[in-house]
Structures are given as structure tokens and as C-alpha cells.
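Input (structure):
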């Protein structure tokens, strides 16, 4: 049975239909069990290959080894990207904390100065009365009426003095704590800066290694490699569909889910750039976090934190808008849009596109608006 059109429409537009139109030249979203068509075979090379290319292509097993190596490199880059994004997110929070603490220190110092001024005025007043405490001066009075009136004032003065001392002590303690907290945040910020730099270096190294590996391939080899990649994804998707899972998935998108899917659909064709959150490019979690932010539901920035913090739901209970987390280390995330399909920002060199929900190893599903 085909998808319920009501589950994939938002604001009167067919979200899934839009996505399908974009990718129909490459893959076909069809009824359950045939959600993605098998890749067409590439014609065998002939002995009369054009000049400048090999007469025969390497064996598929050799290109398959290249594909696996590329997958490993891009996976490492994805893991490093998640670490970079996490460090970037932490740096934003720590910087905000430092600013907040700095403001508290300024206010605390102003309060301390005011309290010290009050204490100074009290000391000056005592000096003007000969340096005798209020209690002593009162006892020397010859007027009983003045004595009784003064007793109340002395009591009030003692209470005020004690309160002043308490305020001074507490304010000084607060200032020491603010300073310690600020120093701690600075240390964390510095550690995060180093972690971010290390992650950035690893990302660039892995992407450069992948690009170098691909640059060694000739045109026909690249075409055959692309075919092997499509075939591998198709086989995984077919195996996933073969479990009969689509026959169990009937949930409809929530109102917020429709908005999130609409946002993700509007980004189709935009390039993957690691660390990017739009509007011109995205990485995998940048796309999903921005899609849900647009729906009024802010979620964690990284795929790892999305997996840790958002509500887990069974695959058979997922609905359009839910996020599918991939690989054991939660290093990739995509948005489910219905009928066995996802929208994702795949990896460097690719664009935001529609793919098969089962084309990668699924760790689990999370729901931002549970």
C-alpha cells in the first residue's frame, strides 16, 4: 500500500512528492518492498577503449576495496565532525557562562564597594561620638526617657551591624566563587579549543585522503565505483525492506514533524559541508537540528547528542520527521520522510538528497517532539 498523502503534506504542498520529483531520475520511491529501483548495470568495457583510459577496468573486488576504504575514511571524518560540532557547541555555552559570570563579578564588586562605604560611615559616626560604642554612651545618659528611647535605637543598630557584616562576608564569598567558576570555564574553553582543532585536523586529513584516492581513478573507474556504491546501498535497503518493516509502519507525521520535513525537503540539492548549519550548506546533524528548530523544537546539535537526549522509538513506530541514527557510534543521522525513504546530508562531495532508510546500518530512531 502506498503512503498516506496526508502524512507527507505540509502547508498544502506535497513534501514527499517534491522530494521524489527531485530524485526520480536516479531512484524511484514506489510501493513497500520496491521503494528503490535496482541500479542499472554499466555496459562492459570493450577492447577498443578510447585513448587515455584503460582498455579494461580493475576487477570489481579491487574497486570494492576502494569503496570500502572510502567509506572508512568518510566515516572517520563524520566521527571527527561530530566531535568538532560538540566542541563548538560547548564553546558557545562556555563563552556565554563566562560573560554571565563576568557580569556577576562586576555587580558583586559594586555591592561590596557599597557595603564597605556603609561600614566606613558607621566607623566615622562612632569616631565623632568619641569612639564609645552606642551601648556605653547610652548607659552614661542621665535622662531616663532618653535611655529608653535610645535602647531601641541601639538594638536596631546592632541588628543593622550584624546584617552588614553578613552581607559583606557573603558578597566576598560570592565573588571568590564567581572567580573560581570563571577560571574553570576558561580552562574548559581552552580544552575545547584544542579538541576542536584536533577534530578539524582529522576531518581535513580524512577528506584529503579520500579525495586523493578518488583522484587516482579514471573516469570509467569512477563510474563503476559509483555503481558499486548504489548497488551496496540498494542491497542494504532491499534487505531492510525484506523484513516486512514497511508493513508495520503506519504512523502519521505530527504537525511539527510536517514542518521539519518541509524544511529538510527545501534544502535538497544543497552541498554537504562539515560543520555547516545552513542556510547554503549542511552536515548531517546540521540539517536535522535546523529542520527541527524551524519547527519550533530545538534539539541537540550533534547526532551523538540527538541519540543520547531525544526519546527513542521503535523502528516500526517511526513517523515522518523522526530521526534515524546510523552506525554503532551514532556518527550519522537522517530524517525519515515516509515510504521507506530519508532526507540526508550524506558526506563531503555530495548534496542533500533522498535515500533509502535502510541503506545504512540503523542504530535506532529518535523523536524530537515526543
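Output (sequence):
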Amino acid at each position: 500500500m502506498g503512503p498516506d498523502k496526508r502524512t507527507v503534506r505540509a502547508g498544502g504542498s506535497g513534501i514527499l512528492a517534491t522530494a521524489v520529483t527531485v530524485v526520480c531520475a536516479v531512484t524511484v520511491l514506489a510501493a513497500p518492498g520496491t521503494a528503490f529501483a535496482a541500479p542499472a548495470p554499466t555496459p562492459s568495457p570493450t577492447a577498443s577503449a578510447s585513448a587515455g583510459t584503460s582498455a579494461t577496468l580493475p576487477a570489481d573486488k579491487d574497486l570494492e576495496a576502494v569503496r570500502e576504504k572510502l567509506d572508512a575514511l568518510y566515516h572517520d571524518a563524520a566521527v571527527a565532525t561530530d566531535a568538532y560540532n560538540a566542541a563548538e557547541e560547548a564553546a558557545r555555552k562556555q563563552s556565554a557562562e563566562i560573560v554571565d559570570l563576568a557580569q556577576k563579578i562586576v555587580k558583586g564588586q559594586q555591592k561590596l564597594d557599597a557595603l564597605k562605604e556603609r561600614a566606613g560611615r558607621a566607623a566615622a559616626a562612632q569616631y565623632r561620638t568619641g569612639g564609645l560604642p552606642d551601648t556605653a554612651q547610652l548607659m552614661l545618659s542621665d535622662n531616663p526617657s532618653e535611655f529608653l528611647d535610645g535602647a531601641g535605637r541601639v538594638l536596631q543598630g546592632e541588628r543593622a551591624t550584624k546584617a552588614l557584616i553578613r552581607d559583606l562576608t557573603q558578597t566576598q564569598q560570592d565573588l571568590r566563587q564567581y572567580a573560581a567558576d570563571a577560571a574553570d570555564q576558561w580552562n574548559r574553553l581552552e580544552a575545547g579549543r584544542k579538541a576542536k582543532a584536533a577534530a578539524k585536523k582529522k576531518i581535513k586529513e580524512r577528506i584529503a585522503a579520500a579525495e586523493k584516492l578518488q583522484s587516482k581513478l579514471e573516469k570509467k573507474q569512477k563510474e563503476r565505483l559509483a555503481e558499486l556504491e548504489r548497488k551496496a546501498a540498494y542491497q542494504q535497503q532491499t534487505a531492510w525492506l525484506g523484513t516486512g518493516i514497511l508493513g508495520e509502519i503506519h504512523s502519521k507525521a505530527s504537525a511539527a514533524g510536517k514542518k521539519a520535513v518541509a524544511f529538510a525537503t527545501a534544502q535538497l540539492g544543497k552541498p554537504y559541508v562539515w560543520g555547516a548549519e545552513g542556510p547554503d550548506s549542511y552536515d548531517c546533524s546540521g540539517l536535522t537540528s535546523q529542520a527541527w528548530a524551524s519547527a519550533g523544537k530545538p534539539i541537540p546539535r550533534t547526532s551523538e547528542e540527538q541519540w543520547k537526549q531525544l526519546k527513542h522509538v521503535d523502528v516500526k513506530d517511526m513517523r515522518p520527521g523522526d530521526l534515524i541514527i546510523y552506525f554503532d557510534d551514532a556518527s550519522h543521522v537522517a530524517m525519515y520522510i515516509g515510504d521507506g525513504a530519508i532526507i540526508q546530508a550524506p558526506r563531503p562531495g555530495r548534496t542533500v538528497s533522498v535515500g533509502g532508510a535502510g541503506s545504512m546500518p540503523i542504530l535506532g530512531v529518535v523523536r524530537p517532539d515526543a
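Notes: The CA atoms of residues 124 and 131 lie 9 Å apart. The longest helix spans residues 144-215.
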